[in-house]
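Contributing new records

If you add data, match the layout below exactly. Sequence lines come first and carry their own label; structure lines follow with theirs. Keep one chain per record. Anything else will be rejected by the validation script.
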Amino acid sequence: MANDRAEGPRVAVVGAGGVVGGQLVELIRERGLSFSTLRTFASPSDESADAEGEERDTDAERLENFRALDDFDLAFLATPAQIASEIAGTRPRATLIDLSGGCERHVNGSLVAPGFTARQDLVGLKRRGAIFVTPHPIATVAATILRALDVRRGLVSAVGMLGASSFGRRCVDKAISQSAAALNGVLDLAESETRFAFNLFPSPARERFQQMFARQLAALIGQAPEIAIQLVQVPVLHGVALSLCLPPAATVDDRRARLREAPGLLLEEGGPAGLVDVVNQDAVVVSISQEKPAWIVWCAFDNARVAALAALWVAENLASTDSAER
């Protein structure tokens, strides 16, 4: 689907029918990103998967030929890392913003994130033809908290609790249909089929994620503590919760003050927020408590929105720089 205006860059969103891609298109229009053309493409893969899962049929065009991105100035890749890598391998003329987190797949990929990458660095990377890669939202949130609290050593344990939206629209649809069937006493799954309804289990993607998480955390904050993280799929539709167990240090008032001042975080004074409280919210809602001998930080956030906002932040900064130079 195309939207045309008089001035601005030509923008493409690949994977626009997925959870992250759909959120990105919504935010582009909501926040008024300047563009002369906005075209949305479905994922080019047969599985039609987006940055965190599969997408449903939409009115987005199918990207049959990656070279079609030569016609654009800027292209968002809300696709799986493998597809993003294949697109980047064709070296399209468009500046690429990859939301898959697969920085290591690109020869000239650079991990960038709001609050961690300076605007002038974005400009320099663009001039060198770099591919902009945004981190996984959990990595961004963890890095923001660890940097705010100045946690550089010791052992941090974490549990990431992922709702169905972390794995795409098809997973959301399955969770809804299975829940309805279970409540009506008619749920009947094949032996190999995963039960999402009213079920909690370790994510099958945890090993691959743990490796990516460690690399991205090190890239964002440099010296980082040892972190053991477990991923769990939880029976909710939208959002992600992250619990961090931190080494003892400082006072609770000092740590609350640091979190309150950190960009992108909203300190909840009245108690921990639930996932229903953060759907469609820009901020990551956090709370902190002392559970001797450690500290527990609880975070809740809209994963799709956090991912889309990070990519849009790159585009907005590049657009404002281009406007200033003209």
